[in-house]
Amino acid sequence: MAGYDGDPGPLRPSPSRRAGGTRWASAPATYILVGINCAVYVAMVIHGVSPNHPNQDQLIQFGANSVQKVLVEGEWWRLLTAAFVHIGFLHLATNMWCLWNLGLLGEPLLGPAGLLAVYVLTGVAGNLLSTVVNSANLDMVGAGASGAVFGLAGVLILLLKAKLLPVPSGEIHRLRRSVIYFALLNFVIGGTTMFIPTSIRIDNMAHLGGFLCGLALGVPLVPRIGAAKSEFVFRSWAAYGVMTVLLLAFAYGVARPR
């Protein structure tokens, strides 16, 4: 399928070791996000979409990102919905495995609401950058949670630098190194698909946009993580609010008639 820019999903990071297990109560937002993604996939299959090889029209019908639909027809909501649409079972499984691991690691630091905010903002940022970079290719269609997954990796790379975390420094360094290797390896894998003639291409621009947004969100949180909860919450939501305004302003600048 020419011009089909799907995203098969990143490789998984090394799972973190959690002394208390992985109960629903410890990471509700992670399970909610995984559940929504799986529910969308099931709904697609129930409505006749191929479970492994959906076509462009089927993906667009269920909310995938499309340069034509976004830039020409003004369907900007696709920048968000595309973060919950997947291109077959393998794509879903790999992304959900990554989301589950990074979410279990990040949610105790960000809180459930914070994890949801990071997922949404970085997912939108990734799809926005991909749309802008590929604006000349109106046939481009993209989908998947991997932009948001890279966003979580970006946030964690910075948050795991905090010196006030109540975790042994050796364990923190191991976890942070694992997240960094995960991001680097998947950027390299995504880059190689630019030179391999296949019908499905990893959308590295979506990965980059999500990752950079995650780094930006993490910057104001690092100095205070482990400090007073009220101050950390304020800084967190200030960062999310500022990022929302920036993304809206950037989208408006792209959409404004020349």
Please summarize what this structure is:
This protein has ten helices and two strands. By secondary structure, the protein is mainly α.
Topology diagram in text:
Blueprint: H1 28-46, H2 56-61, E1 65-66, H3 67-72, H4 78-81, H5 89-110, H6 112-133, E2 141-142, H7 146-159, H8 169-192, H9 204-218, H10 229-255
Antiparallel strand pairs: 1-2
Biggest β-sheet description: 2 strands, antiparallel
Helix fraction bin = 55-70%
Q: Quickly give the structural class.
A: mainly alpha
Oligomer state equals single chain
- Shape label: globular
Q: What's the total count of β strands?
A: 2
Share in β-strands: under 5%
Can you tell me about this structure?
The chain is an all-alpha fold and 258 residues long. Helices cover 62% and strands 2% of the residues. The protein has helices spanning 28-46, 56-61, 67-72, 78-81, 89-110, 112-133, 146-159, 169-192, 204-218, 229-255; strands spanning 65-66, 141-142. A two-stranded antiparallel sheet has the order 1-2. Residues 1-5 and 14-22 have low confidence and may be disordered.
